[in-house]
Amino acid sequence: MSLVDSNWLEKNLNKIKIIDCSWHMPQTERSGFEEYNKEHIPNAIFFDLDENSKIDTDLPHMLTDINSWELLISSMGIENKDEIVIYDNSDVISSCRCWYNLIYFGHNPKLVHVLDGGLKKWKKENKITNNETVSSIPSNYKANENKKLVKDKQEIDKNISKNEFNVIDARSRERFEGKVAEPRKGLRSGSIKNSFCLPFSELLNNDDHTFIAKDKIVEKFNSIGFDHNKNVIFSCGSGVTASVLALAYSLINAKYMPTIYDGSWSEYGKN
Fold first, then answer.
1. Which of 101, 172, 176, 216 has minimal CB crowding within 10 Å?
2. Looking at the domain that runs over 147-268, which CATH code has it been given?
3. Residue 63, SS3?
4. How many CB atoms lie within 10 A of CB 206?
5. What radius of gyration, in Å, describes the C-alpha atoms of the chain?
């Protein structure tokens, strides 16, 4: 159960930990934290996607180190046994990345969920929000990195000739095909050789940003022609929307553990 709906969350507000992972691209000039302070789902704790990524790199949203992760999650009052629901206030993309991070660092995948449709759908249904400060009692969280769930550039390059796994890119087809410029400076246009393209937006309903039905997700993945007998690695611009594909794929393949090329095109497309 990687997705929960708003009714399920409403019934379980006081039984689980809730994370607000609202994040926006820099060019929007929006602050997820400021918006969280104005309005959030009751009991939600804020997770800053930028601040809680690796700091000694110029690549965005890279996984932090295990010690920093343990300190962060402990400060949020989250325990290893906790069931967690993550949401954001835009297009569910950043909540999916937080979902991936938690699984990568060893939280039980059965206990980590994303709110389908996020805060927008929650508010559309007139469910309660507030701006109350949430105080957390620090825990002693212990992480357990699963390094099989991340790929680096060397592994991606090696796979071009060995073809041991599929690489599926979540960016738009125009970016994938090199027809438009990348939004981040210093990156060439194009894509990783032999990779496939499935824009993350095609897996979300336009009206409320919920995920499309499972049978439609199956159709979308089948349409791109990759080898289902090989593992799947997801990529995008900076490792965020790749997580949308990873979550969607986990909905139709119960055995799949989300695996991301963390550097994504921000690393691979450097001039």
1. 216
2. 3.40.250.10
3. coil
4. 7
5. 18
- Say how far apart CA 81 and CA 250 lie, in whole Å: 21
Tens digits of per-residue pLDDT, 36-80?
999 999 999 999 998 899 988 989 899 999 999 999 999 999 999
What pLDDT, on a 0 to 100 scale, did the predictor assign at position 12? 97
Angle formed by the axes of helices 93-104 and 241-252, nearest 10°: 70
Q: ∠ at Cα 70 (64, 74), nearest 5°?
A: 130
Angle, CA of 55, 87 and 107, to the nearest 5°: 65
Overall pTM > 0.90: yes
Q: Which of 28, 25, 94, 100 has its CA nearest to residue 240?
A: 94
Q: Do domains 3-124 and 147-268 have the same CATH topology?
A: yes
- Tokens 């967690």 belong to residue: 84
Cα gap 83→123, rounded to integer Å: 23
What pLDDT, on the 0 to 100 scale, is given for residue 214?
Answer: 97
Q: Where are the domains of the chain?
A: 3-124, 147-268
- pLDDT attached to residue 91: 84
Q: pLDDT under 70 in the chain at which residues?
A: 1
Note the pLDDT of residue 26.
76
For domain 3-124, give its CATH number from 3.40.30.10, 3.40.50.2300, 3.40.1010.20, 3.40.250.10: 3.40.250.10
Tokens found for residue 19: 């994370």
Helix (H) or strand (E) holding 141: none
What per-residue confidence (pLDDT) applies to 1? 60
